Amino acid sequence: MKNKEIVVQFLLLVHIFAAFFFSAASCQSDSSSSSVVVAGYNMVVHAGSTMVLQCVSGRMVWTRDRVRDRQRVVHWDMYRDYPDYAMERVVDMFSAGDQRMYNSYNLGRVSLNPTAFKDGNFSLVIKDVTLNDRGLYSCNLYHIYCHLQETVRIQLNVTKSRRKEQRFWDGQKVVYVVLLGSTVVLPCINRRTVWIDSSNEEDQQVVHWDRQSPGVGQDHADRLVDLYASGEQRSYGPLFLQRKMNISNQAFAVGDFSLTIRDVQPTDQGMYSCHLHHHYCGLHERREFQVKVQPLTESKESAKALPAEEKDSTKAESPPQVINVILPDQRHQSVLPLAYMLTSLLLLAFIILIIIFIMRRLRAKGLTSFLRLENLCQRFIFFIQCCLFFRFTSTVINGSQQLRRV
């Protein structure tokens, strides 16, 4: 019973430790949930050098092309089963509401909701369905400004029997089986702000750099600089004022937010993170840089004159002296403690088996002799364990001392 209680207590401690560990990990993940880490780098630089932390993203480029009505577009495509799944453009529409048909046969028969970019309903309406309308349809949403694309696929089949009309999911897409000559609406609904609202396209873009000193958590990171698409820049601390750290003035024009650090010193070590936020486009990314600085190694020995510069330059050069140093084989020395331990364990197991065998034989003969022998065996086993422990400890200490001498 005592052994069972000890095991239960041990498992309880393990459970408590695991719960504490995962709760701490979850708290840490929640603290960094505002952005997703898309890249991580380990950088080692020499003191006094110039370091560039690359942080580039084309999705953060601020475009001013004055074509905001044409930066969002939806188009429907159809893939026929024959020949070779050829793609055919059905209709497209820009955010201004202008629709363009690619087949004159579909004029007045196929249409989109004119207010799709206001209410988020991009469904395709097909009237008087024919057998020629069968195929795989795809609703494609493009946002040129945000570099976004979303696609919805629907399979359309046509039947002549009303009893066969149905809608189901085949594991990859929705399948519509509609009656010949009827009207069908292929759904494509997306009410995300990025598709139905363009009032804040040029707002809410910000990039900032943080730095965590060694041993400091992310929640206590120091802010270095904030950059806004409007051109405003907020620097924190004296590093930017001294021009030690710098970011290009054309950052939002080219999408390059790299941080340049001049005259790197050991005090500049730590975790640097570049945070990219475009709230309108839904972009929240983070790039991390673990920076370590190595001091410059200078030779302490004074320069010595070459043999040719000696007073007597006519003397023949003496052959170089070679000193052979024989090092002991460290592999065998590192293996010896392990061999001693395994041999001792095998010997102990063999002795225990012999004792168990003798105890069983005596148990059948008499209880008194059995109890006496059991007490004696317990003391003997304890003595052997102590001997093995001290033997193993001394072996490990001797092995480590020999390795240090080598």
Give the helix level as a range of percent. Answer: 25-40%
Annotated CATH architecture of the largest domain: Sandwich
What's the total number of strands? Answer: 19
The major sheet is characterized as: 7 strands, mixed
Count of alpha/pi helices: 7
CA distance, first residue to last residue: 51 Å
CATH first level of the largest domain: Mainly Beta
> What is the string of helix and strand elements?
HEEEEEEHEEEEEEHEEEHEHEEEHH
- Uncertain runs: 1-33, 309-336, 402-406
How would you classify the helix and strand content by structural class?
A: alpha+beta
User: How many domain modules?
Assistant: 3
Seen as an oligomer or otherwise, the chain set is: single chain
CATH-defined topology of the largest domain: Immunoglobulin-like
Taking strands numbered 1, 2, ... along the chain, how are they ordered across the largest sheet? 5-4-3-8-9-11-10
- Tell me the name of the CATH homologous superfamily of the largest domain: Immunoglobulins
What is the strand content? 25-35%
Transmembrane segments: 338-359, 380-397
Keywords: Cell adhesion, Cell membrane, Disulfide bond, Glycoprotein, Immunoglobulin domain, Membrane, Repeat, Signal, Transmembrane, Transmembrane helix
Region (Disordered): 298-317
Membrane topology: Single-pass type I membrane protein
